[in-house]
């Protein structure tokens, strides 16, 4: 096993860890690339790996989907078996998934140093499984790479050792800046769906609280229809498998005159859809960040966010269609301010600086 092991389990983790892997490769620092298969699609993940020019995955773990406890336990068991004979010295995890927590727990119990990328985010909503994963992973990590001063502040208030915390910026900025020009050249998504800049809105909706209840999902569709009528434009909706299954299960109609449902799109197409949308509506944490970086008006259909840096141009509306419409009207009048609070595009360099020092220190 190499000195550094990077463990990911979902496509957002893959995208956000790509700049770190690129920087490690640039400096010729070996690492093992482990995918838990928490969420894995050969087509979608394969596209990301090709588009982002990533190395092949070294180890596929057979985790798959399932209940939170079973999934987290299976991740722990899988990486523990992998590391018993040849443990890495450093395990790098990202974000807030069950893979993040499972790999971090296994590493900590095996006395392997844990580095948490995107540490310190807080929604202050313990009903979100991701919030539990974030808090616990931060507690057992040796190095906490926080994306902003705000996230560092949360950790300090929780009593974390300041020496463990390194403010790096968010790797999502690195990934976006590195690939937006490629996306502009390669993506054909606007032509494919006959879309014109600023003449459509982009929607993503997949969170359990929005799609795992018939009542909530119907309420969500009603909000989207109301927004489409207010905007006078179609809403383009790359459908998440979870949302698609829920719509089919409850036979919920999505009116095509207001909402164009399209298959899931890859990372490059996502960037182009976001960049050219007049408005972005989402319940995704990563999309909140990307829309903010691209300076797009944003409505978040959740009741909380762990990305407070975006709130100068991001309004949390839940599924309240009146609030959503009022927000759009405010945007039309000029409300919204976009800055560079999420970073300068050099987060991966700062992260790898620390990892490189840790590797060299361990060799002495």
Automatic annotation (TrEMBL):
Superkingdom: Bacteria
Protein name: UDP-N-acetylglucosamine 2-epimerase
Record-stated family: Belongs to the UDP-N-acetylglucosamine 2-epimerase family.
Keyword vocabulary terms for this entry: Isomerase
InterPro entries: UDP_GlcNAc_Epimerase_2_dom, WecB-like
Domain UDP-N-acetylglucosamine 2-epimerase: 27-356
MF-aspect GO terms: isomerase activity
Pfam families: Epimerase_2
Organism name: Candidatus Buchananbacteria bacterium RIFCSPHIGHO2_01_FULL_47_11b
